[in-house]
Amino acid sequence: MKSVKFSEILKKYTMVIALVLVVIFFSVTTQGKILLPQNINNLISQNGYVFVLAAGMLLCILTGGNIDLACGSVVCFTGGIGAVMMAAGINCWLAVIVMLLIGAIVGAWQGFWIAYIKVPPFITTLAGMYAFRGLSNVVLQGYAVGVSNTTFLNVFGGGADCYIPDFLGGGSINMLCVVVGVIIAALIAITTFLSRAKAKKNGYTVAPIGGVIIKTVIICAVLVWLFYMLAQYKGIPTVLIWIALVLLVYNYITTNTRMGRYLYAVGSNEKATTLSGIDSRKPYFFAYVNMGLMAGLAGILTTARASGAQPTFGQGYEMDAIAACFIGGASAYGGEGSVFGVIIGAVLMGIINQGMSIMGIESNYQKVVKGLVLLISIIFDVMSNKKKS
Amino acid sequence: MGNVILEMKNIIKEFPNVRALDNVNLQVEEGEIHALVGENGAGKSTLMNVLGGVYPYGTYEGDIVYNGEVCQFHKIKDSEEKGIVIIHQELALVPLMSIGENMFLGNEKGKKNAIDWNETYKDADKYLKMVGLTESSHVLIKDIGTGKQQLVEIAKALAKHAKLLILDEPTSSLNETDSRALLDLMLVFKKQGLTMIIITHKLNEVVYVADKITVIRDGTTVESFVNDGNVDEARIIKGMVGREITDRFPKRHDVAIGEVNLEVKDWSVDHPIYEGRKVVDNVNFNVKKGEVVGIYGLMGAGRTELSMSIFGQSYGANIKGKLLVKGKEVTLKSPKEAINAGIAYVTESRKVNGLVLTNSIKVNTTLAHMDAVSDKSIIDADKEYAVAVEYKEKLRTKTPTVEQNVGNLSGGNQQKVLLAKWMFANPDILILDEPTRGIDVGAKYEIYCIINDLVKEGKSVVMISSELPEVIGMSDRIYVMNEGKFITEMPASEATQENIMAAIIQSGKGE
Questions:
Q1: What's the pTM?
Q2: What is the CA radius of gyration of chain B?
Q3: Which backbone phi and psi does B319 adopt, to 5 degrees?
Q4: Which sequence spans correspond to the domains of chain A?
């Protein structure tokens, strides 16, 4: 019985274990450089867009393995509009709202064709990929447009000061960052055990206490360590707040709302869902509107990070987001996947990128490795599913 | 007869956590039809998969002795070379390929890189004739009916030079006429010296066709006896469930039948693709409070099409007619509207149209009535869990927890989850489409009890079924449907298998 459980744990946390192994591998090959505070900070800042886009992409994939190829172009399109607006001296908050709104409208445009007219998502978004890349060029008139609005840059993770100021005054170490890390860890621990106690009181089956303790301790330890590392550099990067917000919201949507439930149901058995009295077009529409919204947000983050927009921005972003979802255990057939998985997938991709960069591996080979990692993770998934049945 | 062609000795097969087969013994004589019966999950299919090499040698214990030699099959091809061919329950045909292509798929005629199509189709036609099909082997599989597809499967097996043919639930998707034709074909093959093993839930077929019967229960052989003319269904059931079921249909007591809950008037539905083809033709019926109304019809009679068109126009085109719920006329344009009007449709194909197999019992239970477990759009996890547990206990669904994926349950338990889902939606009228298809005798009885409880609560039940004894045993009133029309209505007390079948034959002649 015990061995069975062990293999189950192994299966459930395959990607987490893979992540740990990859981290160990790069720690050795880079003599620990990959875990330097600055590199950890960069990992978050550079991959902000992957987390955000992958969260949106997850919803699309849940509906039946559908993807959005256009989101990279939409990132560029919204970023371009924002940059042009701010360059023309328009208020940065207005620009932000317009960028998000345009993202959502683009999502609604694609979602309408996919959900209500039943145009295959692959074709719809392939069309969008071309169209919005073209429109980005039109908006930017083929040039790079710089953004110098410091509020915008600071809030969305660009420039030199995009960190939460340390008003606790810690000196060499960012005290605020440490405190926040500890508070978050404590909150997680408390809510975990409170909800478990409540569940037990109501007579639900609960996970064994030992496992819960181990899991919580690991999560809290990783978080505290992460914030401690960040504290040794410049503190909490503002982009981390946006990432965290997006992940929390989408985790809530997928686990606690009716729409989230419908996304999974449609992806697993659309006929049964329709016959349950659910309008199966709505989950598709919802997924693509959200994908568009996230593309808008990613456009904001990318523009801020680069202090401007240019027509080639966002190329291949859609692939990074798709890869993060699949590596994180989302099923290519839909109906399976989680935000937690997306986090693991995105971090894994980020670390591989960064580790290889530090090792000085040529970028062409980096792509080869990325491709192989994606393939291997899917093979794992397929094989373990095969064994189950 | 006489010499033993196949002997399976002390077969043990283990899966993670369960022992599916525990010392099973099976002896088949040459030239006989051997029936393998048992409840769902008893291990019949597993046993045949061991025999056919689906589970390779070494993954099980025990011996397979075939024609006097101990066999070690490592793959399906190994057993097929010896002439052991299994026809699985799910038809393994490619819809967009021709009959001939399907028959020699994986077994192509001619050279490795140059298929001899002339030879293929010539041979295919030969085997088609043997199973009594007049179709050309160039016809695509999708263009022939399920009954004929099943015959193609048999022809395919014959083309592999089968000496021992195993048929796993060959009639589960066939109507009575096609089933009977298939069984008769088996008897013809028997005369020609073919040995067959048939797995089936339909015990009348066993009585009709089998020479010898082996009963498997919980992974072990319970008994094996000769069908000598004194064996009836009750005798077989006794072996299957380990006790005698005196009453296959539980009685209803003190159920008051009230006013009409649902009335369907002049209902006509066209085929959604072939316009103008009437699938349901001018149907009138009603069901009262506290009443079970049975709709009997052969497969293809239009029963499912009728009920799905009522359930929010989920099927068909050009739907005409009136629908009255509790005396008030309603127009239901979507399943949602039908549910709101108090109608539930429990589908005949639970895996395809009914359940989300990769989700938990909990999720499936609440899917059609999420309003009750959520506040606006946020799900109340506690409430949802409580509901799932309540229905699990009410219907006695066998599962360790309600977090279990529905795909892991047996057919009977899946059916219970499907019923739970619609009971939770709290409808006044339940349309149950083949509620006991593919589930075993014990689970059937439990489903019947649930139906009785439902009408006791004052609900109306429309039960569609192609099993005559079930319709007669469970209904208060029976409608008989044939070729899209309701041909007769009778109280269950007057119904017999003979007069219902006679009515159908009569209406067929009238055309």
A1: 0.80
A2: 24
A3: -75, 125
A4: 46-162+238-363, 168-236
